[in-house]
Design a protein that fits this description.
This protein folds into 3 domains: 127 residues, 3-Layer(aba) Sandwich (Udp-n-acetylmuramoylalanyl-d-glutamate--2,6- Diaminopimelate Ligase, Chain: A, domain 1); 141 residues, 2-Layer Sandwich (Alpha-Beta Plaits), CATH 3.30.70; 90 residues, PucR C-terminal helix-turn-helix domain (Arc Repressor Mutant, subunit A). The chain is 48% helix and 12% strand. It contains 15 helices and 9 strands. It has a 5-stranded mixed sheet. The chain has a 4-stranded antiparallel sheet with strand order 7-8-6-9, sandwiched between helices.
Amino acid sequence: MSTMMFTVHDMLKRPPFQHASILAGRGGLQKAVSWAHILELTKVKHLLHGSECVMTTGIGWGKELQHARSFLEQLIEKKVTCLCIELGDYINHLPPPLLQLADDHDLPVLVFDKEVRFIDISKDINQLILQSSRLMPRQESWSGRWLEGTMTDKEALPYLEKTIGSREARGFPCLLTGYDDSIPYQRDIFQSFFQKEGFHPLTVQNRDELVLLLLDERREQVSERLARSLKRMKEKAGSMYHTISCGPLFTNLSEIPPAMRCAQEADHIQAAFQLEMPFYEKLHPWRLIIEDDKRGALESFIQDTLGDVLAYDEAHDTELLLTLRAYLESYGSKKDTAERLFIVRQTLYHRIQKLEEILGSHFLRSEQRMALEMALLGWQYIQSPVRS
């Protein structure tokens, strides 16, 4: 495996891919994979940043595969690196026009003709991607050492003062990932979005991360102006970065390091929960999950709240946990839940009846519902390869 990137070719050497077949897109085997996602929805464009490996069973494509082309076109538009499909229950073939479309855009299409565990494959791939990124050459600078924790906040403050030019500072720290300094004027482009809203952006780079210290020059409606800047940047330059995460407002130099740590935690939360929510201060539920994990209380909370559901799924090879999550996210609407899971109402009624037997008939009441929602977030977190 290359120490600079993890490619589709590298992925094919992994044990789970020994029996995979390449049906199309061989011209894209050297493309880099930035992450692996399991996507079973039909509208996925808003969930993608680009360069991902997408895995699906095609459950949402319809019996006549009527949604397949739209799905593939969305992947191509977002410059996804490859598509993995499990043939079997939902798809038993791929039409030639679909494969030709993938070939035309060098999008590798890999298929498994036997049942596989996509969750295990994605975890394996993502761990390797994280390892390969850690092997990349590191920029020996004060910013890199500070961000990685080998320089203390006290040691970093003189460098920050020199960067800012004063101990008087007010603004936001933002951490942008997926920065590619080989793209001409990219830093200027990012800075321009904030300058238009009255911020003076100062930047420090660490590998593929860019820290923006946004110094406020107007001192009014500061949060609203930051939100407008990020919205415009996403609309106009969203393909040029992966995520951006913002810490809370700092009002003097000494507050920048802790505010920066909040931005880093927001980045970690976005990656772990596959969120697109850049503001640290709006991530309260997810922050509580991480704090519980740090205290060693998360797994016992999940077991106390969801243990019986997890045990039933394990013993009977069912999908009660998935159903519970969809039911809660659909606010108890059976119609929306069935559509979301692509199952008939009768199947859903049977699953809900089983959930009521396990959790009690009133599990949608506020107190228990809140506990279930937090436990589901916790379960998602402990399954995430970026947990550590």
